[in-house]
Amino acid sequence: MDQTKLKELGLRLFEINAFKFGDFKMKVGINSPVYFDLRVIVSYPDVMDTLSDLLTEFIKQIKVDTGVHLCGVPYTALPVATLISIKAKQPMLIRRKEAKTYGTKKLVEGKFNAGDKCLIIEDVVTSGSSILDTVSDLRSEGLVITDAIVVVDREQGGVQNTEEKGVRMHSLFTLSYLLNVLLEAGRIEEKTVQAVAKYIEGAQIKSDGSFMKNGTKIVNELSRAGMTFEARADLAKCSLSKELLKLMASKKTTLCLAADLTRSEDILNLVENVGPYICVLKTHVDIIEDFSENFVKSLQSLSKKHNFLLMEDRKFADIGNTVALQYSSGPFKISSWADLVTVHSLPGQGVLKGLKSVLTDPSQPRGVFLLAEMSSQGNLANAQYSTATMKMATEVDSDFVAGVVCQSADLVAFPGLLQLTPGVKLEGGVDDLGQSYDSPEHVVKEKGADICVVGRGIITAKNQEDAAKKYQERLWAAYCERVGISE
User: Annotated active-site positions, please?
Assistant: First the structure.
């Protein structure tokens, strides 16, 4: 096997987004930070050609009986199996996902006899269940299956599970191999490789669908809430989330101050006092009566002095063209100074594309937080809406989405995304306008918050600095307890 061609193909798969990092719900029912979408390769003839060449060579190398039929697991592996069939001059069979309800009502198409051998071709294997489904149908037709060829083995139990059913699995790539190829090429960092290795170890899947480690049933161990900020920074797709995770770790704070005041001077005085204790300052510039360019410059100066990021809580919620203008133009020119902005997912992916379209200076990275849930009583963000928001956060513009605003610990699974949760007070409760509040400990440990928003709990305090320090300390202690580290 030509190792140079193999490595080049691995890098090419990464380039065309067939191999990516994010927050992905797997068929086996768990979330994964790594995803293979080999369906895209049909749009890249060069990749299809190289892959089929390498697989044809690989089949010869492992000395699989050349007289067998080929059968691609539907549907992604079908075009790959077809090319191998042509290049190797081997007959091919097609297994339907369901039997025809008309005509011959066949489950397996092609010419074969009972007792013939068949080699399975598959794209990506996690537990091996798709291979075994195909094997079951082919064996029911009298075919003999002893081997399967796989493009990528995620190393999560597929080899063992298929062997238990009498099928040897041979993989062109393993997940570990591809990660090392990306590492050698400088596409990812060593900590990313280590973090994914921990995920693989903690998510071994048996043929019955249970997760195992050292012979014991477990749940997935690569939990966002259970990982340190430093470890998660290496998995972040968005440069702002990476920066913020590192900032929070070094400054030891998860406190976001909601500076909902109406005069510039009051906001600047507040920030001067509490700046050492916060990681993010959240503003609503449209309520500031004397907003000016000088105010923005002063705010930026304080953010550098005290090391925190600026978030404008604009909650963009319109078509792409409109939000692009709202973001970059008008009296506030938000894109010129706000590191982060909040965005409603209701308009769909276009709202992110619109915002992103006005960013032309790579020296000024920007990011967004998508609103998946709200803390106000009676809000209309239901479970379906929240799930759709998470899908939006991890798809095309995942390098622009720094995090998600939500209230649930199990919504944000990908460690590279930050969870921002509003409604934090030293004492919980509900105000006169229906805003719900929870204690710092509850929000961090029970709700899974990474960044906790505090407004009136600090603004209305007799000593704002002391209040901010108290929130910072309690929130950080809760985070340390959550991830199991000493302060």
Answer: 315
